[in-house]
Amino acid sequence: MSDHAPVTDWVHDFDHTDPRWTENPYPIWDELRAASPVVHTERFLGCYMPTTFNAVKQIAYDTEHFSSRRVVVRDIRPDTIPAPPITSDPPEHKPAKQLLLPYFTPDAIRKLEPRVRAICNELIDGFIGDGGCDAAARYSRHIPVRAIAHMLGIPEADGDRFIQWIHEILELGIKEQSILMKAVHEMMAYFGGHIERRKKEPKDDLITTLMNARDHNGQPLPDLHVQGTLRLLLIAGIDTTWSAIGSSLWHLARTPADRERLLAEPALLPTAVEEFLRAFAPVTMAREVMKETEIGGCPIKPGNMVLLSFPTANRDPSVFPDADKVVIDRKQNPHAAFGLGIHRCIGSNLARMEMTVAIEEWLKRIPDFRLDPAGTVTWSEGTVRGPRQLPVLFGKA
Amino acid sequence: MPGKLRVRVDQEKCQGHARCKSLAPELFELDELGNAHEAGDGTVPAGLEDKAWLAQSNCPEIAIVVIEE
Fold this sequence. Notes:
The complex is a heterodimer.
Chain A: H1 10-13, H2 19-23, H3 26-35, E1 38-41, E2 47-50, H4 53-61, E3 66-67, H5 93-100, H6 106-110, H7 113-127, E4 132-134, H8 135-140, H9 142-152, H10 159-171, H11 177-200, H12 206-212, H13 223-254, H14 256-264, H15 269-279, E5 284-289, E6 293-295, E7 298-300, E8 305-309, H16 310-313, H17 348-365, E9 369-371, E10 378-379, E11 387-389, E12 391-394
Parallel strand pairs in A: 2-8
Antiparallel strand pairs in A: 1-2, 3-5, 4-12, 5-8, 6-7, 9-12, 10-11
Helix pairs in contact in A: 7-9, 7-17, 9-13, 10-11, 10-13, 11-13, 13-17, 15-17
Chain B: E1 5-9, H1 19-23, E2 28-30, E3 36-38, H2 49-58, E4 64-68
Antiparallel strand pairs in B: 1-4, 2-3
């Protein structure tokens, strides 16, 4: 595996896989933003990064100069692996997304809420007697895995496999193409099997729905489209929300005042969830520059990638006063955690529901908890940021 | 006495974040794809003015227009 040289000059040589970025990216982002609305690195075969809310927004809206065909910044540029609609540009993007949207509206997602609540309580039952737990490994990661498996119609028990694939595609695969391709092929074989079984025996699930969908010409979607979309829904639906739930619990473990306030004012939780989404937005996307242009006065050249950091946009103090503080009753919070423009995360309503239910059920049963001073919190690297190890102790200190 | 308010969702800008629906469910509706539009003709009933401004200031796409009449 190729190791990256440590960064000595963040502004001209940034690297989002550097251990210091993984540990605490916020001061680095502030430094980059103070230097320029767009910075560049020669790493990753050339990559820009917008650092302000406006520059992020401008790039997200500009599908003419910036393509979504590659949505992860990697050391290499492997052949594109379509996963519509996230990797689609106009005009293909809209029909591919519209097909999925009805299954992700707030009303559609509300029907899953009882199952998610039950999942949370089953998980808590498993560790509440232990006096503490790794809240990432035992709680936050299992909630989205089981919820999306339930939605797609695949066994919840396959969750460990999904998590391994995601780790390979979004973390290890940044630096090692063979690991990326192995995971993609395994997922294709996995979903290929599910598709074949449903050809014989349709089910009432999202896989069958996609197989029965028709494009705007009345034709069924090619198996590769269905496969790509299923891979997307599985990958995008899991470690993102796992990270968001984990970061929220990490904050609450360290901030008794916010915990107490949410216990006293449960109606504040949706507002607090938006603030957790702003402050700890897990997802950084990417674009590929297709045509020369200019953003924030900086020339942008084709052949480069763009690290499209919605989390950085959410920390821009010109849009969010006290951007570096977690203010759980923040009134004006037009954050970009779910992206901006046509690629707004299709799972945003699902993610919000899972976060709200996960925090609600945790606080009901474990109102007091704190970081375990004997343990270490570790964070994921690269594209999605969240705690992967979150040791906490239950009860008052 | 402040004038009456009306809200309108710019359909070109709305991407279905649904923040308006969650903050001001009386003033906005979602279609079958989850995109928002104003309820009825967008007139804001007395007492819901704050919710109209709240929805506007939380829309990440700046898709909500509040008109003071």
